[in-house]
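During the reporting period the student researcher (J.K.) took over the structure-prediction task from the postdoctoral fellow and processed the backlog of single-chain submissions. One of the processed entries is reproduced below for the supervisory committee.
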Amino acid sequence: MRFPILETKRLKLIEITHQHLDSIFSILSLEEVTKYYGTDPFILPAEATKLIDMYHKNFHEKRGIRWGIKLKENQKIIGTIGLNALQLNNKRAEIGYELHPSYWRNGFATEALKEVLNFSFEQLDLHRVGAVVYPENTVSLNLLKKLGFTNEGLLRDYIYQNKQSHDTYVLSLLKHEWVKSQVK
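J.K. obtained the following structure tokens:
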């Protein structure tokens, strides 16, 4: 499968390569970005290199797809979005995303999420897209709920970050729910 390039009105979702190393590092080295990300902030650019290599490996092994979120107006990478734990046989995946704080509250995450959900349900024919979110991450929880995700419950001590365990919520959106929500 060729890497799928997706487009919205303001964004282009592209394959992340080593040419995007500086952008990925600058985003994931910020504590405010990684606070609810499940990982500590990056300290070295090599950590971003390793992550990009993992994105490529996951895509080629059909276990994930991670797009760079690029602004059309200036070609700047402002974050990433993708499908983790992709299981095509079981028709499910988990969605994850992050944006540089300079671009928060501009609707970019909503725009990218809608496009990836369309791709997931229409092109990949997934039946379920899940999300794992820290209870304190109310902005992300509200965004997912706005898009039709249902909170299925609390996963106790599910993620270990910053030398401590954290609870998370698990949410999901089913294909028929998404299709119904898209009918105008």
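The committee noted the following: Residues 45-60 form the longest helix (16 residues).
J.K. will present the remaining backlog at the next meeting.
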